[in-house]
Amino acid sequence: MTNTPKLIGYIFKPNVKLNLASQTTLAILRAIIGIMMIHNGLDKLADVEGFAQAYVAYIGLPFPIFFTYVAAYTELIGAPLLIIGLFARPAALGLLSTMFVAMYHHVKVAGLSLPYLELSAVYAAAFLFFSVNGAGLFSFDALIAYWLDGTSFSAKAKQLMRIKSAEETEAV
User: How far apart are CA 133 and CA 23, in angstroms?
Assistant: First the structure.
């Protein structure tokens, strides 16, 4: 029971750099890669059998249709969650796992050819970043963490999140 607040804090509280530019950049990055992953999930659902045979069965996974749906819905559910920053760490971890499978497929098809690996590797790096650091201050996770424990954020973080004004911050 005593570990529950720490676990909740880890899931929701972002690792923060307290300046507007870095927080805005994180939110933009979440939006861009999230939109691209939604697109990838929709592509998988557009031709489930084709994707299952060309990608999933090719790498030797059992139940290729099932795993195609798992990958597609991981992208279609995880990406919007990452975009809004709600359960961003678990969502990014799920998306990271789909990128690891994609990278394995690319290695199996073309060896360590950078042109085949580069896009999935860039996505994997971004999802790894959000898995470790969270969504940032401009996210629902940060609002939930503040709601659960308002003392866990510095005055500067509260000011950036527009929870407290600059005058209130200086008064404290």
Answer: 12
Q: Which residues contact 49 (CB under 8 A, 6 or more apart)?
A: 65
Number of structural domains in the chain: 1
Distance, in Å, from the CA atom of 13 to the CA atom of 8, rounded to the nearest integer, reads: 8
Over residues 114-145, the pLDDT tens digits come to 999 999 999 999 999 999 999 999 999 999 98
Range of the domain at 60: 4-171
Q: Write the CA distances from 156 to 57, 79, 94, 162, integer angstroms.
A: 51, 29, 31, 10
Do 135 and 141 contact (CB within 8 A), yes or no? yes
What type of residue sits at position 100? F
Sign of CA dihedral 143, 148, 22, 93: negative
